[in-house]
């Protein structure tokens, strides 16, 4: 029997194998907090608490959502939610073997049971709340770029442990899962001599997570022979889906992998950017925690513009919730089109050299607590196929590409296939 999308998400480390694993992570941190009751709230977390308690609608929503979640939520109320969020941003993510639970999805573990409630949905689409959450996530990302974040987590007891390195090496040349060692990882990412330094030379958690290959031409070679009509994968990822003849508007908040171009490309501010893509094609893939988190140009061309779009961070459409598994983070199973449409994101408008490809929207989305989407390639500079575009900092994420209606595409990949940045040819235009 073929694996379902939910099966893949559990295997890939996006979802805990069972609710026990998610609850265990929360219980462990609550015990620590109870034993350290004098830890002050960080300013951004204090601001979130004040916002919730000063805003009548948010106070009602956050009080009610925990009641609606009932026993599905190990967190009993918003007060302990605040304490847990404060605890999270004071520390880097901990390593959890995907065989024993999703690594680093701490915000998701806290919120997954309440955001699927009616009150949770209403609260988490609030603009003021999302501004407060953005500040918290930005502060955390800043911390994850400090030496202290490496000191706490990029160690042989955590992310440099054999168990972690084995998980992170599964798509590396030279790694043998039947006889695993750390050699393949060190050869790929650790300059000679740095393995003797503290943290193998990584200066921060983000430097470790968004690490770059020492020799990307060896580990992610371009397809040979080169063909200007070929499109390569922009990222290590598993393919979520390919949608054709996409509509200007559609019910993206329902199950069925629907895309609504007007909302995906313009956000909720209006505009006409979507009109050139009506009837076109959307390609979407999601990154695994173990994937390489830098993206490459899928074809030669130039970035014309990079457009930031504000959005939500933890909002989940109630229509995506599986009644049989209401405590699962169902949005990760059925809701990637939804999350890509409502989440804070950036859109790169890329003009391909090849007229058969034309203008394409490239959309990296840092899902949920992943607050940093960073383009490293400048606007207007010409980039060859395979050159670096940018990176995600911390966590699983997703990338979309939107092609116009006149682009004739023959796909070389299928849903649920795992592809490698630069190396995998995903399509040919004709």
Keywords summarizing the entry:
single chain, 430 residues, alpha+beta, 2 domains, eight-stranded antiparallel sheet, three-stranded antiparallel sheet, 16 helices, 32% helix, globular
Describe the fold and architecture.
The chain is of the alpha+beta class. The chain has two domains: 5-148, no CATH class; 222-429, no CATH class. It is 32% helix and 17% strand. The strands form three sheets. An eight-stranded antiparallel beta sheet has the order 9-5-6-7-11-3-2-13, covered by helices on one side. A hairpin with a 6-residue loop joins β6 (345-352) and β7. α2 (19-35) packs across α5 and α3 runs antiparallel to α8. The longest helix has 17 residues, at 19-35.
Helix and strand sequence:
HHHHHHHHHHHHHEEHEEEHHEEEEEEEEE
Helix content range: 25-40%
Oligomerization category of the chains in this entry: single chain
Cross-sheet strand order for the largest sheet: 9-5-6-7-11-3-2-13
């Amino acid at each position: 029997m073929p694996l379902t999308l939910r099966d893949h998400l559990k295997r890939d480390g996006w979802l805990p194998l069972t609710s026990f694993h998610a609850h265990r992570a929360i219980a462990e941190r609550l015990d620590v907090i109870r034993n350290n009751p004098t830890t002050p709230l960080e300013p951004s977390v204090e601001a979130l608490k004040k916002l919730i308690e000063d805003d009548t609608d948010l106070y009602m929503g956050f009080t009610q959502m925990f009641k609606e979640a009932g026993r599905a939520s190990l967190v009993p109320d918003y007060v302990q939610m605040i304490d847990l969020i404060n605890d999270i941003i004071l520390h880097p993510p901990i390593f959890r073997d995907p065989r024993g639970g999703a690594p680093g999805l701490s915000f998701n573990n806290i919120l997954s049971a309440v955001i699927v409630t009616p009150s949770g949905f209403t609260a988490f689409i609030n603009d003021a709340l999302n501004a407060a959450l953005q500040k918290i996530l930005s502060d955390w990302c800043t911390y994850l770029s400090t030496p202290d974040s490496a000191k706490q987590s990029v160690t042989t007891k955590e992310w440099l442990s054999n168990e972690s390195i084995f998980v992170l090496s599964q798509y590396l040349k030279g790694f043998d899962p039947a006889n695993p060692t750390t050699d393949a990882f060190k050869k790929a990412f650790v300059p000679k001599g740095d393995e003797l330094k503290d943290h193998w030379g990584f200066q921060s958690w983000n430097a470790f997570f968004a690490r770059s290959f020492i020799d990307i031409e060896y580990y992610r070679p371009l397809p040979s022979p080169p063909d200007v009509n070929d499109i390569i994968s922009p990222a290590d990822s598993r393919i979520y889906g390919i949608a054709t003849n996409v509509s200007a508007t559609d019910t993206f908040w329902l199950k069925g992998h629907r895309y609504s171009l007007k909302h995906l490309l313009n956000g909720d501010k209006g505009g006409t950017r979507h009109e050139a893509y009506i009837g076109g094609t959307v390609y979407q893939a999601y990154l695994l925690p173990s994937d390489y988190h830098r993206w490459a140009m899928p074809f030669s061309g130039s970035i014309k513009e990079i457009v930031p779009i504000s959005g939500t961070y933890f909002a989940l459409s109630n229509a995506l919730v599986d009644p049989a598994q209401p405590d699962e983070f169902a949005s990760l199973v059925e809701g990637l089109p939804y999350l890509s449409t409502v989440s804070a994101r950036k859109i790169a408008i890329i003009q391909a050299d090849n007229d058969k490809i034309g203008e394409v929207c490239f959309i990296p989305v840092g899902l949920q607590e992943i607050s940093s989407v960073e383009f490293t390639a400048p606007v207007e500079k010409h980039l060859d196929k395979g050159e670096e575009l940018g990176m995600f900092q911390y966590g699983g994420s997703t990338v979309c590409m939107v092609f116009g209606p006149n682009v004739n595409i023959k796909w070389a990949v299928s849903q649920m296939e795992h592809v490698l940045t630069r190396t995998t040819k995903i399509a040919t235009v004709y």
